[in-house]
Write a structure and sequence with these properties.
By secondary structure, the protein is α+β, with helices and mostly antiparallel strands. The protein is 45% helix and 18% strand. The protein contains 11 helices and 8 strands. Strands 1-2-3-4 form a 4-stranded antiparallel beta sheet, covered by helices on one side.
């Protein structure tokens, strides 16, 4: 989920914590829980600081170790410990730690539902788990949490009445979206006007509840990109991956390796210039305005030596500015 949604969910969990009389009847303990759930709901994304070391390192590691099983325990212990230190050991460990743990777990769990995914099962596997069920920003989840928080803030209802209802609705909503996603995948072969027997469809959520972006992987490694709207599937693009020698050479570059480590939906194209080659790897899951903005681009001379590289989200116009090269 996005940072804003994680924030309101952290506040919402503090409201839910009021069902515990120990927390509801003590202002200091409630304040500690509020801090703990807000920080806990953000903590796994503290690896955003990896941007300071470069996009390649950030993309390879974001939502990786910080969202792993050991990290969940570490974040909980560190946050709870710091709160105890600040409050000089006067807090009930079990009550504080339990809500911090819940906040961290919900952060990691909800991140599994979008297309980006996490490595939540580390250290057992480094596989990226992305269920493609909820958009990274879901207006229903965000709006219902904001509404509940405002009702609480203006004293219109007790948090004990508001937040159990909110989270029962949230559980129902996630369940409904999961069923809708599975139903969509089952329908795709019958809706496909270019049906070739393949079952390699991926349905990716959008901010609209009724629209899905669709990716179909062919046996030859190419991809067909489209969308599903109003029950109608339309294909918008076909992406074929180049087998140029420059593509194989590009795999040795750190930026490209980080990109390929993260995604299994990468496709490369090569442009030849008088100074060498431009190899562009694109993640075909993310199509926007007829472009694929999540890329790893490598510029090489005629001897396949790296001249410049970039990995991340970028438009064509800004790409060459970021590479800061004069290729002529």
């Amino acid at each position: 989920m996005d940072t804003g949604t994680h924030l309101v969910m952290g506040i919402g969990l503090a409201g839910l914590a009021c069902i515990d009389p120990v927390i509801a009847n003590n202002t200091s303990i409630f304040t500690a829980v509020l801090i703990g759930t807000i920080v806990g709901s953000q903590a796994p994304d503290f690896d955003t600081l990896l941007r300071l070391k470069g996009n390649a390192i950030y993309i390879k590691n974001h939502r990786g170790i910080s969202h792993s099983l050991p990290a969940i325990a570490i974040w909980t212990i560190v946050i709870t410990g710091l709160l105890q230190l600040f409050y000089r050991g006067s807090l009930p460990w079990l009550h504080i730690g339990s809500w911090v743990l819940l906040a961290v777990c919900i952060h990691v769990f909800t991140d599994l539902f979008n297309a980006y995914g996490t490595q939540a099962m580390r250290p057992f596997t480094e596989k990226w788990i992305s269920w493609n069920i909820i958009h990274i920003f879901d207006p229903v989840i965000f709006a219902t949490h904001v509404a509940a928080i405002l009702i609480w803030a203006f004293g219109l209802a007790s948090p004990v009445a508001i937040f159990p209802v909110l989270y029962l609705f949230t559980i129902f909503y996630y369940t409904w979206r999961t069923i809708a996603h599975r139903s969509t995948l089952r329908k795709l072969p019958s809706l496909d006007p270019q049906q070739d027997g393949t079952k390699a469809y991926v349905a990716i959520p959008t901010i609209s509840l009724s629209h899905w972006n669709i990716v179909k992987r062919a046996a030859d490694g190419s991809f067909t990109i489209g969308d599903l709207r109003g029950g109608k599937l339309r294909w918008l693009d076909n992406v074929r991956c180049s087998d140029h020698p420059a593509v194989a050479k590009s795999r040795n570059d750190n930026a490209v390796r980080s990109f390929l480590y993260f995604t299994k939906f990468a496709c490369a194209e090569v442009k030849e210039h008088d100074w060498g080659y431009e190899v562009r790897w694109s993640d075909v899951r993310y199509r926007h305005r007829k472009q694929y903005p999540f890329v790893a681009v490598l510029l090489m001379n005629k001897e396949y030596e790296t001249v410049g590289s970039y990995v991340g989200w970028l438009s064509d116009d800004r790409l060459m500015k970021r590479l800061r090269m004069n290729t002529y």
